[in-house]
Amino acid sequence: MTDPISQLGRASVQLNPNADQVKNKQADAGAVDKVAAKPQQDEVILSEAAELALSEADFDAEKVARIKQAIEEGNYPLDAKRIAESFVSLEKMIGGK
To answer: In this predicted structure, what is the pLDDT of residue 1?
Structure first.
């Protein structure tokens, strides 16, 4: 029987009984190369403006504490329509539509 893709018969395919061993050695050698490769490290460099903004981040800690407490107590007013509109505008910015 002849293989329709390679046009070889079964006897032709089995001419090299060591082919699997050679293929396994090549695969093992490739695995060693992958293990030996050092992973790269990511680095983020902030601009001077970003560093300045982070160092001078001013906020009203008392107001944040009041809002946090109101949320925990369930007394913070939420406007579902406004929240939904914010998500829509955010999706438009991300999706570009």
So the answer is: 56
